[in-house]
Amino acid sequence: MQKRILVIGATGQIGIELVLALREKYGNENVIAADIRPDSTGLLGEGPFVTLSVLDKEALEETIRTQGVTEVYQLAALLSATSEKNPVLAWDLNMNGLLNILELAKHDGPLRKVFWPSSIAAFGPTTPRHQTPQTTVMEPSSVYGISKLAGERWCEYYHLKHGTDVRSIRYPGLIGFRSEPGGGTTDYAVDIFYHALKSGSYTCFLSAETELPMMMMEDAIRATISIMDAPAEHIRIRSSYNLAGVSFTPASLARAIQCHISHFAISYQPDFRQALADSWPCSIDDSAARTDWGWSPAYGLERLVEAMLEGVRAKISG
């Protein structure tokens, strides 16, 4: 059966990269990009694009039915820092968007498989911070984290109750250069490269030694496609899988950048995002993902920094 894939939230940081990777693998015509806003980057012009809100269940159902969509990647969400500024909207989008997709997936239609991303924000200040286990205490203190934890429970519920083939991973902080930062607490690790190349200095909104799990976008996209391609019997966890790449602090990232840009300087002015970061893990145990569907990251800190500098430099000069 030919895959027909719908990516909702396609113009976001993850969405753009995921659409491009899926189109390369399955063909432009078989991957439909969808968002409530147009693609300002021009990167998604090689295949179908629809203007669509995940909160509009009727339009969503019509798109899935008329396009014969077999798989949905539901990425539309407000991220951590943005959610704190508008918690009611964040809950509505992050929760009801997922529920709309899960409801459509349980009906007798073409939709057979769903991907929905969770996050390390689903953990909280009582969670073990080092090598955070797959199954552990989860008491998130942010609006974003609360919605992610609730979403994980809904995913598992729909799988157990309705047999829905829903798959999820807990993204760490994601680092890529093709789209602008989207309002996340870990976005300093993207923004810092633009400042390093443009001005040679950066003021970080987290403290120097705030260690967080991070991941190069290419690794995250590869993990996302890998879990969706894995045989259903290999997916033992239907809430969300831990996923790890590389953990670092703003200070260690700055030192790695200084190996390439010797004059780069960083200063620190922590804001409200510091409290969010302090409630999240420092490092992640992702042994379940490695065992169940063969996950393994390709990027360490040095390779990540080299790739980001090259990508951001090309974007700025282009």
Description:
A six-stranded parallel sheet has the order 3-2-1-4-5-7, sandwiched between helices. The protein folds into two domains: 189 residues, Rossmann fold (3-Layer(aba) Sandwich); 112 residues, Alpha-Beta Complex (UDP-galactose 4-epimerase, domain 1), CATH 3.90.25. It starts with a strand and ends with a helix. It is 42% helix and 15% strand. It has 318 residues and is an alpha/beta fold. Strand 1, helix 1 and strand 2 form a beta-alpha-beta unit. Helix 1 crosses helix 7 and helix 6 packs across helix 11. It is globular.
Structural class: alpha/beta
* Average of pLDDT: 95
Proportion of beta-strand residues? 5-15%
* SSE arrangement, N to C: EHEEHEHHEEHEEEHEEHEEHEHHH
| CATH class designation of the largest domain | Alpha Beta
The gyration radius over C-alpha positions equals: 19 Å
The largest sheet is: 6 strands, parallel
Number of helices: 11
Q: Assign the CATH architecture of the largest domain.
A: 3-Layer(aba) Sandwich
**How many separate domains make up the residues?**
2
Spatial order of strands in the largest sheet: 3-2-1-4-5-7
CATH topology title of the largest domain: Rossmann fold
Count the E strands. 14
Give a concise summary.
The chain is of the alpha/beta class. The protein has eleven helices and 14 strands.
Topology summary:
Elements: E1 5-8, H1 13-26, E2 31-35, E3 49-51, H2 57-67, E4 71-74, H3 80-85, H4 87-106, E5 113-115, E6 118-119, H5 143-162, E7 166-167, E8 169-171, E9 173-175, H6 188-198, E10 201-204, E11 212-216, H7 217-229, E12 241-242, E13 246-248, H8 250-258, E14 265-268, H9 273-278, H10 287-293, H11 301-317
Parallel strand pairs: 1-2, 1-4, 2-3, 4-5, 5-7, 6-8, 8-12, 9-11, 10-14
Antiparallel strand pairs: 11-13
